[in-house]
Amino acid sequence: MVTGCYARKKDSSLEKIKGVEFIPEIEKVAQILESELVYDAFFGRSRPFLKIQSGCDQFCSYCIIPFVRGPLKSVPLDAVIKLLEKIRNENFKEVVLTGIHIGKYGLDLNDGSKLSDVIEQAHKIVGRVRLGSLESHEITDEILMQASQNKILPHWHIPLQHGSDTVLKRMKRPYTAAQYRKSIEKIIEVTPPHTGFGTDIIAGFPGETETEFLESYNFVKSLPFSYGHVFPFSPREGTLAWTMEKTNGINPQIKKERAAILRDLFAEKHNEFRSSVKGVKLTAIIENELKSNLYSATTENYLSIEIKGSYSPKELVRAAI
Fold first, then answer.
1. Domain span at 11
2. pLDDT tens-digit readout, 215-229
3. Judgement on whether residues 22 and 44 belong to the same structural domain of the protein
4. DSSP for 82-102?
């Protein structure tokens, strides 16, 4: 029995094995095994990761995820609440809400549940709520209101992928650069000045001209990012961009150079952000003991810091940066 992502992608070598059955849906596996599907969170650190949904229906031209992860699948709100209570009962002070596409949480449940409902419950039960990656066009007025009420930590990871409208169109991203900027501005209006912004960006997408790359570079430079993940474009078989790469791919060396330029820019922006909060008191959560009386910690706006003293993992402390 082969299940999960591997079952959706399949493998010709496995198909040759007699008796192999491909079952993509975990729920069906549970039925076959006459077992109950159990939801859980990842407790391997001081900030538990609670996966509230899986799947994606966006079908960006470069992305294989909708093909291997399947359609939207949200964890029912009552199950989420039970997990939040478990997190609280194990004395965790922060929860990270994650998923493939958390902005579309609840669309498949047909009961009116939304991401803002999960945020509300997480804040009520656990306290500190950190959001995983969230698409810019799915930041609703309800979520902005919750941010203004300090129900969401001042750290937002909002994937951009590119800063040129022509490339965004080829990527089949559902927004323009101007619309993305507007979303950032809306967050800035309702959050503290030390709010951290992170993003993802691709360098060397098929057909990316020097002009388009510079548009992307300058767009990134103009926004208040505190960090960014840069990926040289890598084609995934089965996607539209796989074909684009074959007909209009960028030289690997150019991809590498453009990715390096963007990484340097993000390093510069990260240093500027750290300097901007120097002397500011922030609440941090203790992660691990590095050595005697020295601990790693993560601030509310997602800075990694070291704190001297005697603490315990999960503990919240106020620290001047």
1. 1-34
2. 999 999 999 999 999
3. no
4. HHHHHHHHTT--EEEEEESSG
